[in-house]
């Protein structure tokens, strides 16, 4: 039998070139029920551990399960509570034990069906179970389609720090169906837009202008605009990941723009209080103000981001939290080297720089200047 071409499941394909770890992101509309044929076009499978959360499962577990079973795949369905607190040691242990009870072996695969929480968690289970299982991403939030399903950062949180336990474990493929975003709650959809804005600032000023010019269609989830946003974001992330898969040269760290502040905000306010994208929005403006304080960025450019994020109904003000706690969580950021904080600082649209030697007091001023006046 001639194997099916994986691009048959997509209207657009973005390749992530990583030598033997290369894979395709297949982007389409209405292609979710093809997931079984898509996976078997990539490798032969007899057992899949399908990991999802309770909200996503309501909508999409049955069609995905049926599609896998139609390919004679035995499916172990593992559903965790929705939300950031599931990216935990306790949930991981539960999943490891259930996978073992369901006779997982080294030829089993893991399928992540959900948003970034499920992608990060299921990817971590895949990376650790029997020392590594093949892994497929089916992202169902905008944030996961434009960011978390691509690039292989997987992991879980500890109470003290976000994503602090994890590894790089690339998926064998990413299947994106933009039609699944129709059921995504508005707040979650808006949250994903923050990572989209991030790409415009760090890499693509024209893309930023496109977002500024299309606020209404974006808010209305116009399908043509959505396809463009998802595909462009995946292309940009794929280029960065291809050049610096494990964040060793510093290039990949640009994807962390705003995230030192963002992760401190998520951790100190309590996981799930701020959605990740909401915290990214607040964090990007802190990083922009930091750029101003360091004399490399101008206030008009900060204001442009502020305007776009506001138009996209994202939070922009810094909430009043314990400042010592914020600084102490920032000191656990994964960009810290030899005990020194490093920030992604914007110089202009399309150019951000990984910057060391930022005095903590200046970093904190960029935070406190963001309090609502
Ligand atoms: N690995 C990476 O590179 C990377 C990148 C960015 C973010 N992240 C991580 O991603 C996580 C955030 O991901 P998220 O924003 O997708 O959150 P999420 O996974 O919690 O999903 C958001 C909510 O939407 C629900 N949902 C998902 N898809 C749905 C759909 N189609 N219809 C209806 N409801 C749906 C979920 O059940 C959940 O309640 C954070 O933990 C963040 O750290 C990782
Ligand atoms: O893929 C990356 O690299 C990113 O930094 C993307 C971020 O949007 C994402 O939130 C990531 O999980 C943050 O990584 P971390 O290493 O700071 O935990
Ligand atoms: Zn992020």
From TrEMBL:
Alphabetical UniProt keywords: Amino-acid biosynthesis, Aromatic amino acid biosynthesis, Cobalt, Cytoplasm, Lyase, Metal-binding, NAD, Nucleotide-binding, Zinc
Function text: Catalyzes the conversion of 3-deoxy-D-arabino-heptulosonate 7-phosphate (DAHP) to dehydroquinate (DHQ).
Molecular-function annotations in GO: 3-dehydroquinate synthase activity; metal ion binding; nucleotide binding
EC number: 4.2.3.4
Domain spans labelled 3-dehydroquinate synthase N-terminal: 78-189
Cofactor binding description: Binds 1 divalent metal cation per subunit. Can use either Co(2+) or Zn(2+).
SUPFAM superfamilies: Dehydroquinate synthase-like (SSF56796)
Cofactor(s) needed by this chain: Co(2+); Zn(2+); NAD(+)
GO cellular component: cytoplasm
Enzyme class per UniProt: lyase
Residues that coordinate or bind NAD(+): 116-120, 140-141, 153, 162
Any Pfam family the entry gives: DHQ_synthase
UniProt: Zn(2+) binding residues: 195, 259, 276
Domain 3-dehydroquinate synthase C-terminal: 192-336
Cellular compartments annotated: Cytoplasm
Example of a GO biological process term: amino acid biosynthetic process
Species: Bremerella alba
InterPro entries the UniProt entry points to: Dehydroquinate_synthase (IPR050071), DHQ_synth_AroB (IPR016037), DHQ_synth_fam (IPR030963), DHQS/DOIS_N (IPR030960), DHQS_C (IPR056179)
Name by which UniProt lists this protein: 3-dehydroquinate synthase
Pathway field: Metabolic intermediate biosynthesis; chorismate biosynthesis; chorismate from D-erythrose 4-phosphate and phosphoenolpyruvate: step 2/7
Reactions performed catalytically: 7-phospho-2-dehydro-3-deoxy-D-arabino-heptonate = 3-dehydroquinate + phosphate
Family in the record: Belongs to the sugar phosphate cyclases superfamily. Dehydroquinate synthase family.
């Amino acid at each position: 039998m001639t194997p099916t071409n994986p691009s048959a499941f997509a209207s657009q394909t973005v390749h992530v070139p990583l030598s033997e770890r290369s894979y395709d992101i297949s982007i389409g509309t209405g292609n979710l029920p093809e997931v079984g044929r898509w996976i078997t076009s990539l490798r032969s499978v007899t057992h899949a551990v399908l990991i999802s959360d309770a909200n996503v499962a309501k909508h999409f577990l049955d069609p995905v399960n049926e599609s896998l079973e139609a390919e004679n795949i035995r499916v172990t369905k593992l559903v965790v509570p929705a939300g950031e607190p599931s990216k935990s040691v306790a949930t991981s242990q539960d999943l490891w034990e259930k996978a073992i009870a369901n006779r997982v072996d080294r030829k089993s695969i893991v399928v992540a069906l959900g948003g970034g929480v499920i992608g990060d968690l299921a990817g971590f289970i895949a990376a650790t179970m029997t020392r590594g299982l093949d892994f497929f991403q089916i992202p169902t939030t905008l944030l996961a389609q434009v960011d978390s399903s691509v690039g292989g950062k997987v992991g879980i949180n500890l109470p003290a720090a976000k994503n602090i336990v994890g590894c790089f474990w690339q998926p064998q493929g990413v299947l994106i169906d933009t039609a699944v975003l129709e059921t995504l709650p508005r707040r979650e959809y808006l949250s994903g837009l923050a990572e989209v804005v991030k790409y415009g600032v760090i890499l693509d000023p024209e893309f930023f202008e496109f977002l500024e010019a299309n606020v209404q269609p974006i808010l209305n989830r116009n399908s043509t605009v959505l396809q463009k946003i998802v595909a462009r974001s995946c292309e940009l992330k794929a280029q960065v990941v291809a050049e610096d898969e494990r964040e060793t040269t510093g290039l990949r760290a640009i994807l962390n723009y705003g995230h030192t502040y963002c992760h401190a905000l998520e951790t100190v306010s309590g996981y799930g209080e701020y959605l990740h994208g909401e915290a990214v929005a607040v964090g990007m403006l802190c990083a922009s103000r930091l750029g101003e304080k360091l004399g490399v960025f101008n206030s008009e450019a900060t204001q442009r981001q502020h305007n776009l994020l506001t138009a996209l109904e994202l939070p922009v003000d810094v909430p009043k939290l314990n400042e010592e706690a914020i600084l102490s969580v920032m000191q656990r950021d994964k960009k810290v080297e030899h005990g020194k904080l490093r920030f992604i600082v914007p110089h202009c649209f399309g150019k951000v720089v990984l910057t060391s030697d930022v005095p903590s007091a200046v970093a904190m001023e960029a935070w406190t200047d963001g309090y609502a006046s």
